[in-house]
Amino acid sequence: MKIDFHIPCGVCGYGPKRLCCDGTKVGVGFRNSNYEEITETNHALGINNTLHRRMDRCFFENLNGIDKQEMINLRTSLDYIARKELNEIKENKIIPERDLLDRIELLKQALPSEVLGSFERFYQMSDNERVAYSNVLKMLATTASITSLVPPAYCYKIQLLLNSPNIENDRFNSIVNETRSFAPELSDLICESLISNNEILPDDIRLFLQYLINESMSLQVTEPEPPVPQLGTYNPEKFGRAYYFNESGLKLRSVRKFSIDNDSCVKRNIDHDDTTLEFEKCQKLYSKVETSARGTSTLFLWFCADHGHCYGFHMTGAEGRKDPALSLYSYLETPPQDVFYDFACNLQEYCLNRESGYYKNEHFFHDIFHGYSHKCSRAFTASRLQGFESVNSEICEQFNSIKRSARQMSQSHYCFYLQFFLNN
């Protein structure tokens, strides 16, 4: 039966801007699977250095000479101060005033000089400005990368506002509105600071924003390999995968190995590379399915989040962060602007610990279905942004209804079956 499955989304083509993904277990009745794992690395490329890790990219990054527990205490204190101002601290969790003042003093000693001025003015701000500032501090208190708050590619928008104090109202409103589509907390802070200070952005807020921009822009990256179609890599029956991010369906890049992959702690943790703080620790855990159990496999799929088109799938022994990270890098020439996944917080960590050049401007978001169970930074919550009304981030969950038919099929028949139904 000759059917051409090489069809992209009718609107997005081969350059999708928003993608959502998920894995679903096919079941132990699927007896004839024999696929190549997407994690297979090209050893000829050697081992690349991991340039930075989770605690090197966050606002309160680990510093030489400062005890690790002290850094944890600083992040926890910043989170407490922000949440208390936002009335998010339960009454039985409120600490004595003397202890709070001690924490504030320790924070003042540790904060970057560019941030200290605005923090010292915190309790003198108007109510609305203080709330807007607290929302930003709450996000910065986590161990999420600063780039999750403002990705490098978007920094120039805020830089325009900082460089043009006498900008015309129409132009100002346009930039502020655009900023709401990627960093509404910063947009709110700018607006409330202007309203509270006679339409002049205070120097301390200007320095604070400039610091965040500089930190985001200075992220070191490992540039991706150039995209080169690899002949012989499109064979769904053999490899158990079929992606249509390009016209040929061929693989564009080989998977590279990074020094962090040899870390013994990382090898033990399939959910994360480095442990987060207690107040931001998410509860999702990946399945511990034994990959050696014959017939047990997981199907991983990518969909256009706006239009529902499926861009393809691959089969794997057990789902992990490797699946979204490596499938996009291998098959999609340019990464999308936004990715929806049920474990977006730790997917970002995995990607930036490895292919940082490819993923540096990526917005990672939890899908709506799983987002409520997460305690991490609100940077991973898409509902806070403008322009996401059309997104169906749960489409992967809705796919589960056709997977049961796999149990009595060969891998060849199942791959054809998948492509047929996904194409219709």
From TrEMBL:
Record organism: Dreissena polymorpha (Zebra mussel)
Protein name: Uncharacterized protein
